Amino acid sequence: MLLAAFLLGGPSANAHHMVVRCNLEEMTVRADRIFTGQCVNVQTTSRRIAGGILPVTDYTFKVETVIKGSLPLVFTFTQLGHPPHPLKPLLTQMLGGQSGTGFEVSSQMMHGAASYNVGDRLLLFLAPEHTDGRLSAPVGLYQGAFYRSTMPSGQELVRNQINNEALFAAPYTGSALTREQAKIIFPESASNPIAGALLSGLDIQTLEHKRGPLPLNAIVTLVHQINVAHGGQPGIIVAAKGALR
To answer: What's the domain range around 154?
Structure first.
C-alpha cells in the first residue's frame, strides 16, 4: 500500500477516482523526466522489492524528444503492477434463462495506473524513481500519461485517461508546488488560467477553453516554458551508458 500511495500522490490506491487531481504546472515540476516516444516492448514479471515479491511491468520506449531530464534513445522503466487484461472467459450468472460470458481481470494491476501497448505513442511525465531506483510511474498515475493521435490534417493531439480534465483548473496540492510558487498556471482565474504562458493567442484559447484532446505542439511548448520558469534545464538525449534509469 505504501508503494501505491507514493505513486498516486495521495493517501490510498483503492480506487481510480481517489487520485488527487494535478494541474500541468505542478505535474511538470513533480516529474523528473518528460518525453515523447513510442512503446516498443512490454514485459510483465515479478521482482523482490521492499522485502516482498511484487508484480511489475517493464515498459520500453523509443524516445523521440526529451523535454525534461536525460534519456537514451531506447529507454526502459519499471512500473508497479501488471496492465489489466482479460485472462479467460468466465461463465456468468444465468439471466433470463440465458448465460453470458465475462472476463477475469488480473488482480495484479494497480488501480488508476496507466498502461501502454506496443505501438502506443505518448507524452509521458515520469515521477522520480523510488524504492532504490527500481520503480517509476507517470505523475498522478493516469494523469501524467498522454496518448497521442494524429488527425487527417497531420496535427497531433494528446489526451490522458480523464480527457485532460482539470489540467489548468486543479488547485495546487502543495506536494511539489504551492500557489505562491506558481509562475505559469493560475487555476483560480477562470478567464485566463495560463496567463504566464508565452503562446500565440490561438494556442492559449485552444488550451484554456477546450476539454478533450489538445495540440501536442502547444502542450510541449507550454511544458518547456514551465520547466525553464522553475529553473529546469531543457531535456537531452544521451548515450545509453549515461542514461538515467
So the answer is: 2-82+113-242
**Domain assignment present for 176:** yes
**What's the domain count of the chain?**
1
Q: What is the mean pLDDT of residues 48-71?
A: 94
Q: To the nearest 10°, the Cα dihedral for 196, 197, 203, 208?
A: -40
Mean of pLDDT values over 93-115: 55
Angstrom distance (rounded) from CA 215 to CA 208: 12
Question: Which grid cell is 63?
Answer: 524516445
Per the CB < 8 A criterion, the answer to whether 223 and 215 are in contact is no
118: left (phi over 0), alpha (psi -120 to 50) or beta: beta
Residue 98 lies in a domain: no
CATH number at residue 207: 2.40.50.120
CB atoms under 10 Å from CB of 213, counted, come to 18
Q: pTM for this one?
A: 0.83
What is the tens place of the pLDDT at every residue in 8-27? Answer: 444 333 444 568 899 999 99
First to last CA, the chain: 24
